[in-house]
Amino acid sequence: MSAPKAPRQRIQRRALHGVLLLDKPLGLSSNDALQKAKWLLRAEKAGHTGTLDPLATGLLPLCFGAATKFSQVSLDADKAYEATLRLGQTSSTGDAEGEILRERPVALSREQIEAACARLTGEIEQVPPMHSALKHQGKALYEYARQGIEIERAARRVTIHALDILDWQHEALTIAVRCTKGTYIRTLAEDLGELLGCGAHLSALRRTASGPVHVRDAISLDALAAMSETEREAMLRPPDSLLADWPALRLDGQETAKFLNGLRRRVAAADAPHVRVYGPDAQALLGSASITAGELIPGRLLSPQEVNSLLSA
């Protein structure tokens, strides 16, 4: 008779507030990466800022506690990627996981590639790929794709701010992309391949930036796991790191209380669609807001308890 299993030790969760810049590894889903980091930090509340495919690596900002109130900011932010394309082959999924559907010879000059990149720079239309997490009637498109069902998708307008060649070795082309949210890099790879006349699919993808944060400041799960709990907690950036490219506004003590109660205030500041608002202490983030016609309009607000937690951290 086998010995009874020892009971699993329950992890004591705790309230943490901040942003962890994670360098997500290859093969792990965004949610799996989030759960591993949440477990390592023993955090009560956490969320990520937009899905990064398992086949992609790179920057995945994770929000904890009060920072989760600003996760949409990172989701809506411009992104930057390094993408490697396999020229001469198209696949059923638009990436290296799919079945190769067609092969064509690759006979290109750098000038041809640069011209094709220029044609895809600026505002363009993209049809979302079937192998994506976009929902149709409550179900992800990739679920339909796995059943062999094709769903009609409307084209979306996105903006490619920059599309530059990083490296080109005959059939392997690596590009740097800066783009608006909602851009499908695998679709961009396919479109570029068609413009070049040889076809292409995405063979590797790495996110390098999201809004004001960059992968050079990110940490891997392995490095995080090797740290002490104190060191892990020290890796958390303040919640306003996701708002770092917004203008800042500081309120005095009396105005702080009114703002945290959701009251609009008159302010001597220029109109702005997004501002980060602080109390008398420069570290006391109160929340986000907009300014219209000199009126400060509260957006996402921290609770007094969250503000105090950030001040005492």
Please summarize what this structure is.
This protein has helices at residues 30-41, 71-76, 110-119, 141-146, 185-196, 221-225, 229-234, 253-260, 304-312, and strands at 18-24, 46-48, 56-64, 79-87, 89-91, 100-103, 122-126, 135-136, 139-140, 156-169, 172-179, 200-210, 213-214, 248-250, 265-266, 272-278, 285-292, 295-301. The chain is built from 9 helices and 18 strands. The model has no long low-confidence stretch (mean pLDDT 90).
Topology (elements, then pairings):
Elements: E1 18-24, H1 30-41, E2 46-48, E3 56-64, H2 71-76, E4 79-87, E5 89-91, E6 100-103, H3 110-119, E7 122-126, E8 135-136, E9 139-140, H4 141-146, E10 156-169, E11 172-179, H5 185-196, E12 200-210, E13 213-214, H6 221-225, H7 229-234, E14 248-250, H8 253-260, E15 265-266, E16 272-278, E17 285-292, E18 295-301, H9 304-312
Parallel strand pairs: 3-12, 14-16
Antiparallel strand pairs: 1-3, 2-3, 4-11, 4-12, 5-6, 7-10, 8-9, 10-11, 12-13, 15-18, 16-17, 17-18
